[in-house]
């Protein structure tokens, strides 16, 4: 029988040094991630947003609520285009840019190298060489995959380029707040607003299960709304270091033939959110129908309660969102973790199957519609700069309605039983992702 000393000698080999380093490295990594989450407010108690007695959409007080509560600008505009096939979206933008005579202003979040970025470069370079002022305002994080030589080539032909909020070591946490807007303005008189970045991702090439073009759409307006959006563009352009030259913009445009519209923009703030108030007002004003499109769906508790409340009132509440085709699996897991109470209350949640669903919209009752860059998640509510245009616009509502119906035909609507029976690993992943809910 071995003595205690003999046992200790044979089993007590110290772990190899590399294992210690690995453990220390992992510990540090966890510390950095948790500290980052902590400093960004990931574990904070989310501020509440409960609203009672929301006026109906046809009550003039609803518009006042948008203006006063959700900081929305009251304007007018005419719908001049709607595209829901991704080739058509890029073709419409490229054609409009190619026709510009004085000024192209473009603010976007996401770009990657590829044929879409090449086509974009070709058209803006061509216009710049023809003497058109081209101002590109690019989110630094969302466009970081683009090589420096791409921008150099554009700058060399006179394109003005500013990056929104590059990493600054003196304020590194600000890097979390991005410009998520997608805004193309042509000659100060036509604006394009929609979900698509400038990337081959939208052709469905980048991820597993992504077998077709992404589902998205683009809307174009003319009228006074363009001047106000130019102002929004110039605010961020100036913040990013660009000069505001009013010689070429902010034309006063006739209101004749236009429809009232409301522009809601959101800037980063952990305490308040115009976008959340906008969405909450829409949800609570609905009487018959509330159809929502959002790829990233991480509703806070008050939004969930408002959706449940709408269901209880008899409103037809349906949400179209992404399924297994996703560029952000963690967000999808977090979303699914939150489906339960909504499904139980009767909210229809349908995941688009053929490819990534990326459109962002809210359709309320017969003719009210809101479209733009905002998702239903804390990132759009509290961290990013966003832009949505809303209003009673039956012509646009019909188009978004058809888009929604077509998408639903290719979606799987999850039942409460499906949700309860999801795998243990999905439940665990969902809970892990939700630890960082406020940052998603
Ligand atoms: O952030 P979104 O909604 O513009 O989506 C961009 C995607 O993350 C690109 O992968």
UniProtKB/TrEMBL annotation:
Signal peptide: none
InterPro entries assigned: PLD-like_dom (IPR025202), PLipase_D/transphosphatidylase (IPR001736)
Keyword terms of this UniProt record: Membrane, Transmembrane, Transmembrane helix
Domain PLD phosphodiesterase: 175-202, 353-380
Transmembrane regions listed in the UniProt entry: 18-39
Pfam family, one: PLDc_2
Matching PROSITE patterns: PLD (PS50035)
Gene3D superfamilies in UniProt: Endonuclease Chain A (3.30.870.10)
SUPFAM superfamilies per UniProt: Phospholipase D/nuclease (SSF56024)
Keyword check for Membrane: yes
PANTHER family per record: CARDIOLIPIN SYNTHASE, PHOSPHOLIPASE D
Protein name, UniProt field: Phosphatidylserine/phosphatidylglycerophosphate/ cardiolipin synthase family protein
Organism name: Leptolyngbya subtilissima DQ-A4
